[in-house]
Here is the input.
Amino acid sequence: MTKKVAILMGSDSDLPVVKGAINTLKEFGVASQVHIMSAHRTPNQACEFATNAKSNGFGVIICAAGKAAHLAGVIAAHTILPVIGIPMKSSTLDGLDALLSTVQMPKGIPVATVAIDGAENAALLALSILAVSDEDLATKIQNMRTNMTNEVIKKDEKLQLELS
Ligand code: RP5
Here is the structure.
């Protein structure tokens, strides 16, 4: 059975962006659990969630956080599940602070970091990780990519007609 994906966000203010990840997982029919959980405001809850995530049936954890974004790193410290960080553009620094905080993990505890506000790609990466041991899911991802390719080819054909 396909494992679940956990989506954690540091604040409810992250939700509008995080919805992109929630919806992408829904489109692929993969179950997710979504929580507001902060490394600094709810440190005990975050630690407990990460520690038990594997035994609770999760296969990947996505963490969205802004500013001094340490949620993904802290969660990764408490689990061997793959952790994907979404740096949020929620600050006066336009998310560059969160990007660096998330991507610059010291060696030993990795966090796979997507683009600032890159919620859809975080979900797609989580799906690819789960697809390593799930052929049906791998086929769905491949089909999505084929459709994407065909759409771009169609757009290019339309452009060529317009320009000719
Ligand atoms: C982070 O601080 C959250 O992930 C959010 O992106 C940012 C601002 O949080 P709020 O002040 O809006 O709750 O912890």
User: Anything to note?
Assistant: Residues 135-163 form the longest helix (29 residues). The mean pLDDT is 97. The beta strands are 4-9, 32-36, 58-66, 83-88, 112-113. The radius of gyration is 17 Å.
